[in-house]
Each structure stands twice: as structure tokens, then as C-alpha cells.
Amino acid sequence: MAFIDYYKILGIEKTASPKDVKNAYRKLARKYHPDLNPNNKDAKTNFQQINEANEVLSDPEKRKKYDQYGKDWEHADDFERQQQQQQSQSSGARGGGFSGGSSQNDFSDFFESMFGGGGGASAGRGRQAKYRGDDYTTEIQLDLVEAYKTHKQTLTVNGNNIRITIPAGVENGQIIKITGHGGPGVNGGPNGDLYITFSVSNHSTIKRLGNNLYCSVELDLYTAVLGGEITIDTLDGKVKLKVKPETQQGTKVNLKGKGFPVYKNEGQYGDLQITYSIKIPTNLTDKQKKLFEELRNSL
């Protein structure tokens, strides 16, 4: 597998702080979001790579292994486990003697013997090569309401049921990796991984861009002129709004914290922006028309 430089993908240095990682991810995710680049074929691929880089570099343990082992970081636990076993066996055979530390070459030999290549030290000792299982891919379709809240779903993969938790705020086109739920390994090698791509559709009346939501709300002419109170539907239930007198067509109201939940940041939400559309009354009676004429003449 070719080495993927996650730092380069996010445009940050290896010394970047967790805050730097988060800021870089948010900036690039907005730039390459598939919904904002419908005619750009490369946007989806870039968006997937950005998500993958963030998934690793935003997790301290994963980032530590990635920095130490590079492209083979996902198999670091297997390597370290084998090293501990070898040191234990060596210590027992020598009556408690010292066993030297591991090197990057040790890891390369281990990886080749475990996942193919036939050139490792283990292969030279006549051991049967271990091979990692194939990676599986699948797609989960969600509507905006489902993506709004953390929930569980059951997937059937290769005849096995897998119960997964889908975090609130998952993006359209986002890929999540479930380690070890791909194809079975060969000769004791590890299983492959399962990659899930999420397809999130927009709501009939509410549009999502990043963590912000946008919708249009109709106001009757009388409420627009005189002011009043209305109730609107949001993804989190009904909300009452006060309408100012003499509200104009196209007036925008921003409801802070009433937008979409921020992925893996519990308690953080984007904003909901409402645009008022004033509904002009129709089928007026003669009496009603006369009242409007009197109002016009009095202005």
C-alpha cells in the first residue's frame, strides 16, 4: 500500500497542534464538500482523503502510531505484540538476559512476512506467510433527520451482522472505517477493514451546508406588517419566533446553535438561518379590497 501523507493532505506540519488539525480539516472540508462542488469530479476523492487524514491525526493514539510506523501504522499493535513475545521467549532462554530493542527494519520484515512479499526473516525460517484480509466497502443512505442524531444501525457484511453507532453530524460523502470487519485473514493474518460511505440527502424544506441549516418560512401579510409570533418546525422540534413589525420580504433571521450537530463534538451545533417569504393574500372580497384602497390612500 502506497504511503499517504496525512499531514500534506491537510496542509499542516508534523508539529501541528490538535487545534491546528481541527481548523485545517474544517477549512478543507468546506472547500471540497461534494454538495458545494457538484461538477468537480475530484472533489469527492479529495473530501474522502481529508476525512481519512482527520480520522487519524485527530486521534492521539492513531497519530502516534502513524508518526512512528508510517504507512503500516494500522498493524503496529500486531508488531509490538510479536516483539513482546520474542523478548519474553529470549529472556526465558537466556535466564533473564537482555534483549535489544526493535528497529524499523524489524517492522518491515514483520510486515512483509505477515502480509505478503516473501522476503522477511520469518519467511526465511520456513514459516507460512500470513496475509491480511481484503477490505470491504459499503454505503449507508441517511436522510437529514437520521444524520442529525447519534443512532445505531445493523449491517450485514459477508453473512455477519455488525451493530454500529453512527455519530450525529456525519457528512454526505464521509467515509468511516470499521477496523477488522473486512475479509478474513489467511494463515492467521488479520482481517481487512470495512469502509462505510455515507450518502446524506437534504430535507424537503431544510438545506444543509456544513454545520449550518437554511430554510424559508412564509409569513402572512398581516403578521409581516403588524408583527407577532409564529411557530416553525426544525430538526430538533418546534421553535417559537417573534416577528418584528414591518418585516420585509427576504429578511433573514439567524438562530445560533439551532443548526446541525458538529461531528464528534458533543453539544456543539451550527446555526439555522431563516429567510422570510411574505405571502400576499388572494381571492379578496370587494370589502377587503376597499379596505386596502383606503389604507393605500391614507399613506
Helix proportion of residues, in percent? 25-40%
- Broad shape: elongated
Strand order of the largest sheet: 6-7-11-10
Q: Strand content of the residues, in percent?
A: 15-25%
Run of helices and strands? HHHHHHHEHEEEEEEHEEEEH
Mean pLDDT, to the nearest integer, reads 82
- Span between N and C termini? 76 Å
Question: The biggest beta sheet, please?
Answer: 4 strands, mixed
What's the CATH class of the largest domain, please? Mainly Alpha
Total of DSSP H or I helical runs spanning 4+ residues: 10
Number of domains: 3
Question: Quick one: how many beta strands?
Answer: 11
CATH fold name of the largest domain, please?
Answer: Helix Hairpins
Structural class: alpha+beta
Low-confidence runs of at least 5 consecutive residues:
93-104, 113-126
What is the CATH architecture assignment of the largest domain?
Orthogonal Bundle
For CATH, the homologous superfamily of the largest domain is named as DnaJ domain
> What is the rounded Rg?
29 Å
What would your notes on this structure say?
Residues 93-104 and 113-126 have low confidence and may be disordered. The protein is an alpha+beta fold and 299 residues long. A four-stranded mixed beta sheet has the order 6-7-11-10. The chain has a three-stranded mixed beta sheet with strand order 1-5-4. It has a two-stranded antiparallel ribbon with strand order 2-3. β2 and β3 form a beta hairpin. The protein folds into three domains: 6-90, Helix Hairpins, CATH 1.10.287; 136-201, Urease metallochaperone UreE, N-terminal domain (HSP40/DNAj peptide-binding domain), CATH 2.60.260.20; 206-283, HSP40/DNAj peptide-binding domain, CATH 2.60.260.20. Helices cover 35% and strands 24% of the residues.
